[in-house]
Design goal:
Layout (H helix, E strand, L loop, with lengths): L5 E5 L2 E2 L2 E2 L2 E5 L3 H4 L16 H15 L3 E5 L51 H15 L30
Antiparallel strand pairs: 1-4, 2-3, 4-5
């Protein structure tokens, strides 16, 4: 089965730090057509992720629909994707935690990467941080699910999905 999704990409470069989100509407075209995609250019858009979230809330209130935003490429954010007040270094006890890290800089390479930024960019740390923040504040700001694919922008998964019907 193939299911087409209505959505758009929103990419804010806050001082070169990538704050990309994939925005996916759960609804059909009748609801999604009631709004235009949120951009990063005024007057329709903003580079502030909080403004994107207001847009999403307004969409749901206006249409009685549902929409979600998926954080994407936090490793190009130079530590601004998943911030917390204080944290230890990126998974120091896991020998595989450094695989695939982007340690050059932000998305446009206008700011060099420093080791202290890594702890606020990667999913593993965000998952650990969200549990600590929920325990501390009673709310989980990073409660999220996961999806996996390449970053080729082709909508193709990295390997074929095998399906064997039951007999």
């Amino acid at each position: 089965r193939f299911k087409a999704l209505i959505g758009f990409g929103w990419t804010s470069l806050a001082n070169g730090g990538n704050m990309h989100r994939n925005v996916i509407f759960r609804d059909n075209g009748d609801r999604a057509r009631q709004v235009v995609p949120f951009t990063t250019q005024a007057p329709i858009g903003s580079i502030d992720p909080l403004d994107l979230y207001k847009y999403l809330e307004n969409y749901e209130a206006k249409t009685n629909g549902a929409v979600l935003a998926l954080a994407h490429d936090g490793n190009l954010s130079n530590g601004i994707m998943f911030p917390v007040d204080a944290h230890s270094f990126l998974s120091p006890d896991d020998e595989f935690a450094d695989y695939g890290t982007w340690d050059l800089g932000n998305l446009d390479l206008s700011e060099a990467k420093t080791d202290d930024m890594l702890q606020y960019e990667y999913l593993r740390e965000a998952l650990k941080n969200d549990l600590a923040l929920e325990q501390k504040f009673g709310a989980n700001p990073y409660k999220f699910g996961l999806s996996g694919a390449t970053d080729s922008h082709t909508s193709l998964a990295p390997s074929p999905i095998l399906y064997t019907p039951s007999s």
